[in-house]
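Entry type: protein chain
Record version: 2
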Amino acid sequence: MPIRPVEPLTTAPLFLPLHQELMKLLRSLPDEAWGRRTAAGWWTVKDVIAHLLDGNVRQVSFRRDALAPLPPDEPINSYADLVRFIDAINAVWVKACGRVSPRLLMEFMEITGPAAADVFNRLDPAAPALFGVAWAGEMTSPNWFDTAREYTERWHHQEQVREAVGVPGLTDRRWLNPVLDTFLRALPHTYRDAAAAEGTAIGFEITGDAGGSWTLRREGGAWNLYAGAAEDPAGRVVTDQDTAWRMMTKGLSAEAARGRIAVQGRLELGEPFIGMLAIMG
């Protein structure tokens, strides 16, 4: 098939079944598993679940109940300022949840998970979102993109929990393909400073059941993202689905990822992809 413009993603129907998979997992955990370290920095399993609870609480409060988000203590004048602000509010919540038992966390999740899923299902996909997807370089975004970002957040943190407790991940196409498709929307922003002649195409292929092909093309002084593989790209980047999602969520360093990514054609066209992030960081 010829390349075609990427289309809006529909991820809202996945929130409730993803939540149900998480609750099934949490109910099966022995007490000691809640204290196991995860790939999310210093966070334990319990800390990650507390963070997911925070996401549910914020979404329901802001979107369903029209609670205004609290203003930051310091002005946010840059991407780095935004990252520091988000890291700080996340840390405060997780620290406070140190006083909450795993059982009570699960009870809170039972209430807020379906409520958050309902919120996302009720949004107008084309309407402006409360928050832009900053890692894609957007100050404002449509709801469908912000919703997809929220889905990737819930999916990858659940994967971190599953890995920490030795339970198979949710990596079949139903779950992981929307994550990868969302993450690759960061490509135009990631390549914004990569100079190339008009019409230059770069192909990206992620192998595995959940993978696919995408193309960046230089048009009008900017990079535009397309679904599908260009016939004769100037460069081609190939990696597997496990490498892709881990690298883009800081679960795999750029140095480690480099050995698992193949770049064909013009090697410099693959360089911005290595270490690309699709989370705030």
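Comment: The first helix runs from residue 15 to 27.
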